[in-house]
Structures are given as C-alpha cells and as structure tokens.
Amino acid sequence: MAARLTLGIDLGGTTTLLAVVDAHNAIVWDRRLPTLPEAGFADVGRRIEEAAAEGRARHPYEAVGVAVAAHVDARTGVLVSSPNLAFREVELRPYFERAWELPLAVENDVNAAAYGEYVVASAPREPLLAVYVGTGVGGGLIVDGHVFRGADGFAAEIGHVPVVPEGGEPCGCGRRGCLEAYAGGAAIVRRAAARLGPKGPSLASVDDVARAAAAGEAACRVVLEEAAAALGLGLAAAVNLYNPGTLVLGGGVARGWPDLVPRALERMRAAALPAALHELVTAPAQLGPHAGAVGAAALARELLAAPRLS
Questions:
Q1: Tens of pLDDT along 218-261?
Q2: The listed CATH number (3.40.190.10, 3.30.420.40, 2.30.130.40, 3.30.420.240) that belongs to domain 6-115+289-305
Q3: What is the pTM of this model?
Q4: H-helix or E-strand containing 10?
Q5: Phi/psi class of residue 156: alpha, beta or left (left: φ > 0; alpha: ψ in -120 to 50)?
Q6: How far apart are the first and last CA of the chain?
Q7: How far apart are CA 213 and CA 128, in angstroms?
C-alpha cells in the first residue's frame, strides 16, 4: 500500500492542475494546462487525458480523483452545473472511467481542497472547516475523516451566507447580500472600481486594490475593510453552526491583501459564540494551489483501500 500512487486532477474555470501523489501526500509529478471551457467538454477532456497519459508513463498511478469547480453528485460522478465552466449534466465518472479503466472519485473542488488540507495536517482537531477566499468564497467541511456534503451536496457553501439582510450587492448565484458579493476577489475589484469611477487607477486584481489603498485611495480602503467585516461575519455564522475544531483559511485574496485574515478573524471573534471559539484552532492553508489536486488524489486513495464487491 505504501508505494501506491494516485492522480489528482483539479479542473478549474481557468486552469486545470494534474498531480501524481504518493501515499504520504507528496507530489511526485504535476502538470498545469489552461482549461479553455469555451471549447466544450470533449476538448477539455481530451487534453486532460493526454496530460494524464504523460504522468502515468512516468509514475504508474492506480486510481484517479477529479476535483471540479462545480456542483457535482459525488455518488454518480455527474457534474450537475458549473457557472465557471458553463457545463451542465456532464457524466465525468463514466467518461474518465472509460478512458483510464481505473477507480475514480469525483468531488467538488473546495471539498477536495478541504480534504487535502485535512490529510496533510498534523492531527487536526475535528471537524475541520476550510474556507478559501479567491475569485469567489468557498468552504469545505471534514467530519470524522470524511467530506460532509449535506443532503444534496451543498454543505458549507459559506460564500452564499447572507451578510446583508436586505438588498445588498448582487451575487453570481442570482441573489443579493451574499458573503461572496463582498469578500470574493472579483467582487472586491468590481466594487473598488465602481467607487473610484473612470478617473481612478486601473484595477485588475486584489493586489491592485490593496496597493491603491496603501497609496491613499480611501474608496479602496473602505472596500477592503467591508470585505474583511463580511468575511468575519460569515466565519462567525459558520463557527456557530458547525462548531469546528479547526478552521483553515486560504485563497488568493488573502495573499493579495495579507491584512484580510487577521481583520476577519478579529470580527469573527467579536461576533461568534465565545464557547464555540474557546478551543478553536485557526491555521493557514498549507497546500496553496495544489490543495484540490492533492485532496482529489487522497480521495482516490480511499477507493484503493475500500473493499471491492465481486
């Protein structure tokens, strides 16, 4: 068992990352390629197959895990819908099982990333809640060593916790006032640009917003402060609801504006139940952009360990 290798694939809206992972969750080979979802799933799948074949030639893996930025049915392996990929009702598991003839797991990308953080952590206190603040805001929950998906696969959707009770900024889900509409990277850039107007500096990323705020742009500073406050309220709601033992925080927005996490945690501690905070362990994400692929590979390893039915 110790020598067994698995392949993890993180199929994102912009980039797809493949990683062959050993039994200790160390990456022994990886490959990054543009997803190009506008070409259709057949083209995306073909290019993933080609890259996976290269990895298998070098490091023969025995199972595959696919993490995808979508609502997926983990039981059937069907991609139900994905705003970022614009795919609907794609039978991922049957497609890739025909291609590889290997045990295959399919999971939502944030759930897989949370599982990745769980397997590389040193004796994490459970439940483990991982929250990622990137283009959007996502969460994954690990309970008793397993991904907790909820009744229909929507558990831990912290990005769509309402932080403004009425009205509020529009969210990609079609509603208003969601956490993601304030703390997601795309929302931060959009809101800062709108406040600055056409005469303001050009903003393409949260890094740009943070630099403008540091240079004295009050509008950018306000948007960042509102993002931290909203994230803190969302985290407080999650802590009160799930009572996690470990809270892992990661994502590109935190890297672009390092003050985000400490300010959000300060707001969380002010708003959450003191008893739920008493033994809560907070930690930064360890795996960075590889979390989804490592988590998917670890989920695939679980298939190798499970007894097979004849």
A1: 999 999 999 999 999 999 999 999 999 999 999 989 888 999 99
A2: 3.30.420.40
A3: 0.91
A4: strand 6-11
A5: left
A6: 21
A7: 33
